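User: For my dataset I need records formatted as: sequence, then structure tokens, nothing else. Please produce one.
Assistant:
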Amino acid sequence: MNEFLEQFLIESRELVSQGNDDLLALEEHPEDRERLDSAFRAFHTLKGGAGIVDFSAMARALHAAEDGLSAVRSGSVPVTAALIDLCLACLDQVSAWIDQTQTSGDIPGDADGQAEDLVRRFTELGSRAAAASPSPADATLASIQAVSGLTALGNQIVEAQKLLIAAHPPDPACLASAVRVAINVMRSHRMDAEDLEIRLGAHLSAGDATAVAKAIDTFLSDSGPRPAQEHVAAPSQAAETTLRIDVARIDALVRLTGELTVAKNAVGHTARQALAIGDGAHLAAALKNQHLLLERLVADLQQSVFSLRVLPLSHAFQRFTRHVREMAVAMGKPARLIIEGGATEADKTIVEAISEPLLHLLRNALDHGIEAPAERAARGKPAIATLRLRATRVSDRVMIEVEDDGGGIDVARVRAVARSKGILSDAALAAMSDEEALELIFAPGFSTSSVVTDVSGRGVGMDVVRSTVERLGGRVSVSSRPHRGATVKLALPFTAMMTRVLTVEAGGQVFGVPLESVIETIRVPRASVVPVGATQAIAVRNRTVPVIHLGEALGGAQVDGTKEATILVVSVGGELGGLEVERLGERLDVMLKPPEGLLTGVPGIDGTTLLGDGRVLIVLDLHEIFGDDVSPP
């Protein structure tokens, strides 16, 4: 791939993201000239870049979209849902072309047909707009008409009729006249008001002004939503292989490298002095001081290196505005997404890996959490539901919340489904608090939906959320308030490169256990570890927790010489397990390397690192070690 094409791909992704954001904002606020100009510039710049790398098919498709936006800028046509949808479809196709080009290293050979299809659709849209252009006599009215719903002028006329209705409720003639004017205005805006006339018949006969006004309001609100779109699946996105880095971060890394060199030289000088003088105490003190300095510099160097890999979470968040829009339309549930804390930064691996879990959470909130419009109206809630995607940085953790203002999680329904699917016994369910029962939604195959749709109902979404987050070293929790909504919280590490582990000894070897998974360490009398079926278990605060002896699980002999058993109580997939070891070690911050050589493909190994004495530390994958041998929390 030549350097021009490589640079084009980097810049094109940014322009596609900008264009998506501008189009969605323009749909919300059609009068926003700044957003319109920004969207036009994104398409224009993309077209220019496509021309430079000789991608003529992409240039033709973008030129057609540019013409559509240019007509809006000139005032010839209004911003319409059809134009926004087609421009977004054009950006989707551009994204697909970018992914194909990055994978193959060359421009796709089948792009011409796809481009011609887009050009044809833009041409048809322009022809329909031209056919609907008003005659000179109607130019003033037509210039403010929208594709659906009332314009500002039309709305003023209808509101005036409602005021007239409220001012003269006893007068049937006044009611009938006001209704006729309101219906004529709706018809002039191409709205089908026949059903409204039928509904108003009984109210007019009874002279019920309140019912008349309410029926008009209901009709207008019901006429607003657009038809569902055919496709709401998230477009695939190739993992990015480039990062734009602030020069200040590079400079900081260079300065630290210089300081690290000085510290290294100091340690070498101290070693030479020790050889010359032979003073053991003096040597120990000097080495300790130099080691502390070296430790600080290495920590700063690691932090600077990590900062080179960080991305703002908006990199993942920005695509969800469109997904929520499309899913809300398809489900017939008007909803908006509010993003907070998009500037919060995290490691590139975390930002890219969290997209799928967040999409599952947003789908779940819309499908299961947000009520139908009629139900929201009955509860006195706003017609447009609100989803919030919020991110904050707390110490070395990144906290992400997905919150909705829907009906909350029905705990009784969760218990009933868990019982019917045999996930837990009646006794276990009865002993659970409501907070503990909520955690059951993360169980594999669990779903409260009785209907399988394209969006949800198969019971895999929340399970994927928990498993993905825990593999990243994070945790998931959920809370719910009846009729007020639910919140799912993700606590994630700032970086996936650094892992905190607790070293343990078993079978004569030292292993690392991810500290994030360790709930507590306990010592119990060996007699407390009793056989339960094919495994062993202990009782921890009235809960049965299965126990695996690490040395035995890894092929060594179990050592029973001690009177007490040292057990790590760990959380695996939201459930509890016990890991018996012979000895506890220290806590370490390590950078994991994937298993290599003989360790490649060996189950139960998450990665390796080197200890200070040169030995290899194997860090365990608790998910594979325990499998199904865990206990519900």
